[in-house]
Design goal:
By secondary structure, this protein is an alpha+beta fold. 20% of the residues lie in helices and 27% in strands. Strands 6-3-4-5-7 form a five-stranded antiparallel beta sheet. A two-stranded antiparallel sheet has the order 1-2.
Length: 176
C-alpha cells in the first residue's frame, strides 16, 4: 500500500512516500480505506509518534491520526459495524496512523461519518473537536449561563468551541 513513513526524528524532511506492508485487522480491529486525512503540525515532535504504548521505539512510523474513509475489513470480535460503512476517526498516537491507504482503527476510535459532511470535511473534525470538548468539559467544567471568550474563533478548535459552548448553554464571545 502507499504510505508516508517517518525515517528518523526530525521535521517534514523525514517524511517519505513509499510502499509499506498492508495491515490486516486482528482481534478487535477494523481496516479502513482512507479517503481523507491530515497530519497535526506538531506531531513530529511528540514522543508518542516514535514509541509504542510500552515505550519501545517504532520502526518507520506512519503519521496522521485524523481520518475519514470506508470500512473494508473487520477483525474477529468486532460487532456493530459493517463493511462499507463511512466513518471518521482519531486513531491512537502510539500506533501507525492514517497517512496510508489502509490504517487500522479500533471501534472506539471512530464513528459513523455524518452525511452532511464530505470526506475531507469529516477528516478535519476529530482532534479539533476533541480538544474543544476536553477544554470545556474535562478541564473547565463549563456550565449553562457562563460566558466564554474564544480567541481564534474562526479556525480549527475555535469553530468547535463555539458550537459546544452554545450547545452547553453558555454565552459566547468570539474573537477572530
Amino acid at each position: 500500500m502507499n504510505a508516508i513513513r517517518i525515517h528518523g526524528r526530525g521535521g517534514p524532511d523525514r517524511l517519505i512516500h513509499e510502499n509499506a506492508p498492508q495491515p490486516h485487522p486482528a482481534q478487535g480491529e477494523v481496516l479502513v480505506l482512507v479517503n481523507a486525512t491530515g497530519v497535526i503540525a506538531t506531531e513530529l515532535t511528540w514522543s508518542q509518534t516514535y514509541q509504542t504504548k510500552a515505550g519501545s521505539e517504532r520502526s518507520l512510523p506512519i503519521p496522521g491520526h485524523d481520518l475519514s474513509g470506508v470500512v473494508v475489513e473487520i477483525g474477529p470480535g468486532v460487532t456493530g459495524i459493517t463493511i462499507g460503512s463511512d466513518v471518521y476517526a482519531l486513531t491512537a498516537f502510539d500506533r501507525d496512523g492514517a497517512e496510508a491507504e489502509y490504517p487500522i482503527a479500533l471501534p472506539g476510535e471512530f464513528a459513523p461519518k455524518p452525511r452532511s459532511l464530505d470526506y475531507l470535511q469529516a477528516a478535519a473534525v476529530p482532534l479539533p473537536a476533541l480538544t474543544a470538548w476536553q477544554a470545556f468539559f474535562d478541564h473547565a467544567g463549563l456550565a449553562a449561563r457562563q460566558t466564554v471568550l474564544i480567541h481564534g474563533a474562526a479556525v480549527e478548535v475555535g469553530i468547535f468551541a463555539i458550537q459546544l459552548a452554545r450547545w452547553a448553554g453558555a454565552h459566547v464571545i468570539g474573537i477572530y
